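As a next step, we paired sequence with structure tokens, yielding the entry below.
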Amino acid sequence: MQKKTVGSAPLPAYEQIKRHVLAQIESGALRPGDVVPSETELVKEFGVARMTVSRALRELMAEGVLNRVRGSGTYVAPRQYESTVLQIRNIADEIAARGHRHAARVLGLEASDDPNAIAALELGAGPVFHSRIVHSEEGEPIQYEDRYVNPEVFPDYLAQDFTVETPNHYMVRLAPIQRAEFRIYAQKPDARVRQYLEMEIGEPCLLLLRRTWVGRHVATSVRLWHPASRFHLAGTV
């Protein structure tokens, strides 16, 4: 089988496998408690050595994404919710609270038929809505927001001016969030994200993956990239 690649730049094979598994989990193709493909299956699919697959799965277990049960298999770990610690806050409000100026640059606002996004929003078919925005504080980029939105929950999303009101503020104003799930990673961005955030080569990001629910609907699926040197996450219990 042809070896898979991610993006335009080649990645180490073990990282390709990690991203493949994470994409399956994010899209909902693999859910908490599901068995992930075996090492043998992944060796065949990616055309790599078993030790490469073993490293990928081992790192995902160390990150709390997977659990291995001896004699049974490797499973997607249960999701952990920390809404009491990590609150969903409007970045414009956070910046204003520091006495600074917020600005948003909208890179894209469009309908999308991305199959992973449709699956993450738990919809049977597209299109879904997609926005890409760079948020800046005093002229310095501090967040790249890559958001998919359920059109059944926010049908007028594409008609909004997100340089005036952030997506978060707009959506919470219309339909307060009932539930959220988070995952946070330290990860190097690709060249595109690095350019948007005006980062040095090799500088890591804090990457927050988040889905939110309004009623029984998955309302949004978003990736938030933050330069580690200019941003931190904090909360209180």
Summary: The helical segments are 13-27, 39-46, 50-62, 91-97, 115-120, 167-174, 191-196. The two ends are 49 Å apart (CA to CA).
